[in-house]
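Illustration: Small ribosomal subunit protein bS16.
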Amino acid sequence: MSLKIRLARGGAKKRPFYSIVVADSRNPRDGRFIEKIGTYNPLLGKDDEKRVQYDAERAKHWLDRGALPTDRVARFFSAQGLVKWQHGNNPNKAKPGQKAQERAAEKAEKEAAANAPAEAPAEEAPAEETTAD
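Result:
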């Protein structure tokens, strides 16, 4: 059985409140869980001590048993040194899609084609003026 330490959503519409739970990874997000070990209230300020509350001893117990925290929960646990968390790096995420890249390439080609003939007569024109002097 693969265990996850994750957030289970509660609260009203547009007013989220999460419980930090240990659950089987096959169960749904807000479904059955084994143990509730804390809470997370994203509506509170980042410096508020009640924003994230959890039982560190129980978290360590479940981590020792092989439970894997989700990315958000690992971020919370890293504040107390229970888990080493580092920011993910996905440089491809910011790149535009394939169609957008094709359109940008076509646009660049059209601009290059439009600028090339316009530059050629502009270069010849000053040459004619200098010969007329």
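Reading the tokens back as a structure: Residues 3-78 form a domain with the S16 Ribosomal Protein; Chain: A; fold (CATH 3.30.1320.10).
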